[in-house]
């Protein structure tokens, strides 16, 4: 069966261009890209895009699906529905579940569940050490064979340089990607805000932005020593950027991401002790937010992700210091990133390099491109459609979004995975 998506504003992140045209889908892949004015081929099914934007689907690195162990927060089914509604066609899911994904059996369970119930592609990470405890290396070779696409202990930062270095050396020998978290654990312990006058005013335990830089310096030294492919899951402070820049200039195999929340929110948003804004790392100064946006625009930061972290009402409706960290983001990543376009920080092709093309390169995927032969994982969206976010209409099982009741612009109209339409906005 062939499908023709016609009259679209095509966003091509690979060539950094946008143009009018149509896309022919055949056997789950992009068969032809037709420029505006060229003769249109016949197709079994035709969808008029009415001049709206058509781009590669979002590839979201670092999604937490709480299955097994905490299905009441998020399952593969609900995460898949939320992802499709948010224009996310591939989720790279984290290993910090209960139990952690540190054995081939647990990994295979996740893959089977995802295959059976998820509307979108699911690629699983596995832990770097057993139970993320930082003491004993996980079975990296067996986990690779079982389908792991990357290895990460998440925010359980390994304090033992000797053990961590051995893990990186072994991962390098196996050709594995390691994903790390740049927060010095001793300085960050117990902190829930960024150090400064505002945190002092609220009386909250805080951490200096230097905690991120210190950890990043350590990690880059070990990457230089081992040569492992390394992706920093999220940077959030301006003081870390020179470290990343030096590492890339030295030719180290390093990439970095930033969460959409740290690109669109700042430390002032926690005023009133609103726990839906409690994140890890904590929200930063406005100067840091702007520096992160500029780093994405320049290409220094490669990837924008949602860091989707579902938390139930019971864990959020607590005093700020005691409340769980994290926010859901699968359904809000597109309108949130569109605020960067409307504010003039990024254009659409540059933005889509960060949410689709670059994540595909980091993970070694064919997708993320608007090119003939590429998988037909696509999102059709209206970049200007205004709406008010209502968390109770979200498809995620947990509703802990910091954007609740916020006026936003940008709506997903349809999502395609392998050429099949998995979401349509009513």
Largest sheet: 8 strands, mixed
What would the principal axes of the Cα set say about the shape? globular
In terms of quaternary structure, the protein is single chain
> How many separate helices?
13
Keywords summarizing the entry:
alpha/beta, TIM Barrel, eight-stranded mixed beta sheet, 18 strands, globular, metal ion binding, DHOase_cat, dihydroorotase activity, zinc
What report would you give on this structure?
- This protein has 426 residues and is an alpha/beta fold.
- The chain has a single domain, classed as TIM Barrel.
- Helices cover 30% and strands 24% of the residues.
- It contains 13 helices and 18 strands.
- The strands form 4 sheets. Strands 1, 2, 3, 4, 5, 16, 17 and 18 form an 8-stranded mixed sheet that branches. Strands 6-7-8-9 form a 4-stranded parallel sheet.
- Helix 2 (104-117) packs parallel to helix 3.
- The model has no long low-confidence stretch (mean pLDDT 96).
Structure summarized in a few sentences:
The protein has 426 residues and is of the alpha/beta class.
Q: What's the structural blueprint in terms of helices and strands?
A:
Layout: E1 2-12, E2 17-26, E3 29-35, E4 45-48, E5 53-56, E6 58-63, H1 76-85, E7 88-93, H2 104-117, E8 121-126, H3 140-146, E9 150-151, H4 161-174, E10 177-180, H5 185-188, E11 193-194, H6 197-202, E12 206-207, H7 210-226, E13 229-232, H8 241-249, E14 254-259, H9 260-264, H10 286-298, E15 303-305, H11 313-316, H12 333-342, H13 348-363, E16 378-388, E17 407-417, E18 420-424
Parallel strand pairs: 1-4, 1-5, 6-7, 7-8, 8-9, 10-13, 11-12, 13-14, 14-15
Antiparallel strand pairs: 1-2, 2-3, 5-16, 16-17, 17-18
Helix pairs in contact: 2-3, 4-7, 7-8
């Amino acid at each position: 069966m062939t499908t023709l998506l016609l009259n679209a504003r095509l966003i091509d992140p690979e060539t950094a261009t946008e143009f009018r045209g149509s896309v022919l889908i055949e056997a789950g892949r992009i068969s032809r890209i037709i420029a505006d004015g060229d003769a249109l081929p016949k197709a079994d099914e035709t969808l008029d895009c009415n001049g709206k934007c058509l781009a590669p689907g979002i590839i979201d690195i670092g999604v937490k699906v709480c299955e097994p162990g905490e299905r009441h927060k998020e399952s593969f089914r609900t995460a898949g529905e939320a992802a499709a509604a948010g224009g996310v066609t591939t989720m790279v899911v984290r290993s910090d579940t209960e139990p952690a994904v540190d054995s081939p059996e647990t990994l295979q369970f996740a893959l089977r569940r995802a295959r059976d119930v998820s509307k979108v592609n699911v690629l699983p990470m596995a832990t770097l050490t057993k139970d993320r405890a930082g003491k004993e290396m996980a079975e990296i070779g067996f986990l690779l064979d079982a389908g792991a696409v990357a290895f990460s202990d998440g925010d359980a930062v390994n304090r033992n340089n000797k053990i961590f270095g051995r893990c990186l050396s072994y991962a390098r020998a196996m050709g594995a990607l390691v994903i790390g978290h740049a927060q010095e654990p001793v300085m960050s312990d117990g902190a829930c805000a960024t150090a400064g006058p505002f945190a002092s005013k609220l009386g909250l335990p805080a951490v200096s932005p230097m905690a991120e830089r210190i950890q990043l310096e350590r990690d880059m030294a070990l990457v230089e020593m081992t040569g492992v492919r390394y992706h920093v899951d999220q940077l959030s402070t301006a003081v870390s950027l020179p470290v990343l820049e030096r590492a890339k200039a030295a030719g180290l195999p390093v990439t970095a991401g930033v969460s959409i929340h740290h690109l669109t929110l700042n430390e002032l948003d926690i005023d009133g002790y609103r726990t839906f804004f409690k994140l890890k790392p904590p929200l930063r100064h406005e100067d840091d937010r702007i520096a992160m946006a500029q780093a994405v625009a320049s290409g220094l930061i490669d990837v924008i992700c949602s860091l989707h972290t579902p938390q139930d009402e019971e864990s959020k409706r607590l005093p700020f210091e005691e409340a769980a960290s994290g926010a859901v983001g699968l359904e809000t990543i597109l309108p949130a990133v569109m605020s960067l376009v409307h504010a003039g920080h990024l254009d659409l092709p540059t933005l889509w390099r960060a949410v689709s093309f670059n994540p595909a390169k980091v993970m070694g995927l064919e997708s993320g491109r608007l090119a003939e032969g590429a998988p037909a994982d696509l999102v059709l969206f209206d970049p200007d459609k205004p709406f008010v976010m209502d968390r109770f209409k979200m498809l995620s099982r947990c509703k802990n979004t910091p954007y609740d009741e916020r006026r936003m612009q940008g709506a997903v109209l349809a999502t395609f995975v392998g050429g099949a339409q998995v979401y349509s906005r009513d």
